[in-house]
Amino acid sequence: MPSAHQVIFCIVNAGFSDAVMDAAKKYGARGGTVIRARGTAGGDSERRYKITVSPEKEIVMILVNVRITDDILHAIYREVGLETDGQGIAFAVPVDQVVGLHQSHKSEQQPDPDGKEEEKT
Question: What is the number of structural domains in the chain?
């Protein structure tokens, strides 16, 4: 069975995580997690790709339904892609299992371990 969710990772220069989330929310993302990071690319990458590499980075992780992944990835790239000051890259990875999300549609609900279905509100 194909995964119903994917996690989008977006790596941007420090200070651009809000722009990532603004773009993602326009296409249905509800929220994300930001991790501060430090990039390791140096002079060779700067010359090859004609970019300035800022060592201070932010990694934004956004868990989304697979149906909206492409729209969000394209929106993120338009707003903070390599051709912008955010110099971001983004990619998505399938997620095998998810717990803790509020299920808003009965068709998405899973039966409980006792075999009884409960309607969650």
Answer: 1
